[in-house]
Fold these 4 entries.
Entry 1:
Amino acid sequence: MAHSPAAAPGAQEPGCPIRVEHDRRRRQFTVRLNGCHDRAVLLYEYVGKRIVDLQHTEVPDAYRGRGIAKHLAKAALDFVVEEDLRAHLTCWYIQKYVKENPLPQYLERLQP
């Protein structure tokens, strides 16, 4: 499921939108950077029938501080909401994102 692009100048090249792609088979969300050479990634695993563990977010050093990880976190949490799943947050960045964006639809799906 691809999410619609959101404007974030400088993420790839000035004025290029960030496009998050979801690969369900590989259980990851990705953003291609600089064409397709580099990429940012958020990895998850199913740890129960309807429970996902959002495990790790990684953005290459050269692209950090541009809001790319926020787009990955939002896409992953929106996936949890859309699929009516529960989420365990192993990734420290996703934990931080939820604290900064305490939307009820996210909070009610968190596993302790």
Entry 2:
Amino acid sequence: MANSSGLLKLGTLVMFVSMLIMSFSHGGQAQISCDTVDNDLFPCLSFVLNGGKVAPACCSGIKTLLSLAKTKTDRQSVCSCLKSVAQSATDGQLKNAAQIPHLCGVNLPYKISRNIDCTK
């Protein structure tokens, strides 16, 4: 049960970052795997689960992922990787994830929600 709970919570975080990187627009071929997303965002998991202070490695991971997601296809791939898992996130997890952009100094042009459309 702990493993599926942790995966669910990681999915919430990934949904947040998926929305974050979808805000940047370029053209091209996807090269970002779900493993890359998981690895870059893993340092954010504690904050999504428990709140508190965002680890510097979390902000670094988000910025790294943003720099990798140069194409629309990249952003769509990242969004699709874990969207289905993120749909089961708790409201508290989404609230914590929504705070991360501000705390990391990253601006998002939209509200983080379960209703993100990965095709846009």
Entry 3:
Amino acid sequence: MAKRLVPLLNRVLVEKIVPPSKTHAGILLPEKSTKLNSGKVVAVGAGIRDKQGNLIPVSVKEGDTVLLPEYGGTQVKLADKEYHLYRDEDILGTLHE
């Protein structure tokens, strides 16, 4: 049975990116050099409404690579994969190549 999680309001579902622990040549990297809190946006909510009832859309879209806070978010496990739910305002920024 396939499950699909659709975030509500201004929530963003993120799959954290696990950095490689060794280089292509086989050199093991220290844990500190591989730690970057980033993730790929899997799903976004519709947004939140202000006091006048106007919809404020979420600032990221599916497929974006985002910078995440060190702590926070709600851990969700679906089909043996680990995801995190964050509010739109908790995401620190987007990463571009």
Entry 4:
Amino acid sequence: IYALISLSFGGAIGLMFLMLGCALPIYNQYWPLFVLFFYVLSPIPYCIARRLVDDTDAMSNACKELAIFLTTGIVVSAFGLPIVFARAHLIEWGACALVLTGNTVIFATILGFFLVFGSNDDFSWQQW
């Protein structure tokens, strides 16, 4: 139960940094909210690979590697988008720093979720 509470706290802190980067009166630009799409998309390749993989199959390793590659691309894009916005003067650099901090916390929370609930025990995310 403590893991679930700490993951919820981490997600809330990460979203708070994202919202601060958008809604503070000195920034007041909501372009960084596009990283929410990356938060939703990042676990999908790995979840699909975990469903399709068979540990005895040689092809399963390639499927896992492709899923990790796609997830890495999504995560790098989530970190790159605020930097591109800041370089294009759509957002301020302070907002970019807040969004990057939020990205770090959110992706650490997603990683923590898969580390805590990723095993095949009685309470697993695969049941959902």
